[in-house]
Specification:
By secondary structure, the protein is of the alpha/beta class. It has a single domain, classed as Luciferase-like domain (TIM Barrel), CATH 3.20.20.30. It is built from 10 helices and 10 strands. An 8-stranded parallel β-barrel has the order 1-2-3-4-7-8-9-10, surrounded by 5 helices. It has a two-stranded antiparallel sheet with strand order 5-6.
Length: 293
């Protein structure tokens, strides 16, 4: 099992330099990944463009995986994302993971004039992923879809990672469409409808079996679990992570939001020092790590 940090691109983390410094802390403390949210305008808080932040993170780290969790691809021009992702992949020495999804609720889309229909955004996401892979190929590429049209575009350089940059697909369980989509790619990033541990484990188990049933590719797929552990060694936190590893989770992402201090309003003051301290403590020390990962 691998362990990463998962945090917003706004509030006290709405500055590229702050994120880059924290990513360096994470790398030095033994974490395997550092993944940032991709929001544009949901909160009236300082907010940084995730691709600018990832560039800063790429040049201040050397080992850890980096990426977005998740980019709402239907709100982006896929050819622009193709350029951004390849640039970050080269800058990082081939460490980028691209997380994608259809984006949040109707209100978020309406505010900026985006497509509000989730089914249409799902179709846009599928087309955009085809466009990304085609442009990443380094060969002349054309595409004629319902939402995107490209004629003889030739993008160079290719990503450092081959056959391509890994793609994780996010979605809200128990909705099934995002997980049929995820089964075609490299990883699945589920958000669950319950917070109770036993109920969430049951949903994770159902989700893993559903994705496995629909996966045609024989290559292993990453299963991402995320949440909060009090520190690296607390029994409660270790149990929480081990239970997910036993069900097939291959990544644990430690969430750095004010929720872990009982703060629900992101406009309130964040416990920044305590959040950084959790990073410095390192990943959960699993008792069964060699057995399950």
């Amino acid at each position: 099992m691998k362990f990463g940090i998962y945090l917003p691109n706004f509030g006290p983390y709405g500055e590229a330099r702050v994120l880059a410094n924290l990513a360096q802390d994470a790398e030095n403390s033994g974490w395997d990944g550092f993944f940032i949210w991709d929001h544009i305008a949901e909160w009236a808080l300082p907010m940084v463009d995730p691709w600018v932040a990832l560039a800063a993170i790429a040049v201040t780290t050397h080992r850890i995986r980096i990426g977005t969790t998740v980019t709402p691809l239907p709100r982006r021009r896929p050819w622009k994302v193709a350029r951004e992702t390849v640039s970050i992949d080269h800058l990082s020495g081939g460490r980028l993971i691209l997380g994608v999804g259809i984006g949040g609720g109707k209100a978020k889309c309406d505010n900026l004039g985006e497509e509000p229909d989730p089914k249409k955004r799902g179709a846009m996401l599928d087309e955009a992923l085809s466009v990304l892979v085609g442009l990443w190929s380094g060969e002349p590429f054309s595409f004629a879809g319902e939402y995107y049209h490209i004629e003889n575009a030739h993008f160079l350089p290719k990503p450092l990672q081959q056959p391509r940059i890994p793609i994780w697909v996010g979605g809200n369980w128990p909705y099934k469409a995002p997980f049929r989509r995820a089964a075609k790619w490299d990883g699945v990033f589920p958000l669950f409808s319950v917070w109770d541990n036993e109920q969430q484990l049951a949903q994770l188990n159902d989700m893993v079996h559903y994705v496995s049933k629909h996966r045609k590719n024989e290559q292993p797929i990453d299963i991402i679990a995320m949440g909060i552990t009090p520190d690296a060694e607390s029994k409660e936190g270790v149990d929480w992570v081990e239970q997910r590893a036993e069900l097939g989770a291959t990544w644990w992402l430690e969430c750095l939001t004010p929720d872990r201090a009982g703060i629900d309003d992101y406009g309130d003051e964040w416990p920044v020092d305590a959040l950084r301290e959790r990073v410095l403590q390192g990943p959960p020390q699993l008792r069964k790590l060699h057995e399950v990962g």
